[in-house]
Amino acid sequence: MDNVLAIPPTIVSFREEKYFPSFSDLPVESNLDANFYTSVDGSFWFPAKHWCFLAEIVDSVRLVRLRVYVRDRAGRTIQIAFHTEDRGETVPPPLVQRGNTVAIFYAQQHAFMDSSLGIRQEELSNIKIFPYKHEDILQLSDRVQAYSGTQDGMRVCHGCDAKRETALRCVSCGYFWYCNQDCQATSWQEKGHKRDCEMLRDPDLRMMFQIQWDGHDGHRIFPPM
Predict the structure, then answer these.
(1) pLDDT at site 4
(2) Confidence tier at 8 by pLDDT (50, 70, 90)
(3) What is the CATH number of the domain that holds 83?
(4) What is the total count of domains within the chain?
(5) Total-model pTM
């Protein structure tokens, strides 16, 4: 264990609706919502922050194009229609199985021709499908919040919850701290860190934890699926 990862001073919770809104709180296409966009001259508008729509897949259909049906944090089911150049054909079928979680940077509400609402997905670069349940990702975020930073200048051991001025950090994920190797073993075997560590080795999930969500320093993208 060693100090191997530069962690931002403030890690945003994935439960924070300002950055991870439900579908009904997303900006509407062609509507310059001041909660999401800003302007310096009144004519050129750009994102005022980063935001990401997170939802769990409940179904999918491949006809003319890929349509993925997801349930958001508010329990609402909406469709994501792939209007990408390939109409979603290159998205591997195993990724769109029920229970996986969709993440979409800078998502917007779209009104389809049949008057239904959903998300019109035109780029593959701002969507990622994680092979984890939505609630599992939220709970991981809770634990990262609790154990990756400091409390009153003290590190919190994930194995025994003791607070220490100095501690050892997990070399694999870089987010969890321990008093010693015995506490690390307790964390791994009894408190679920084996699963957390596996999830945090996903570079795209790690990237989401490292973003400074306030302000906008350029669009974030995901690598091809």
Answers:
(1) 43
(2) low
(3) 2.40.50.140
(4) 1
(5) 0.91
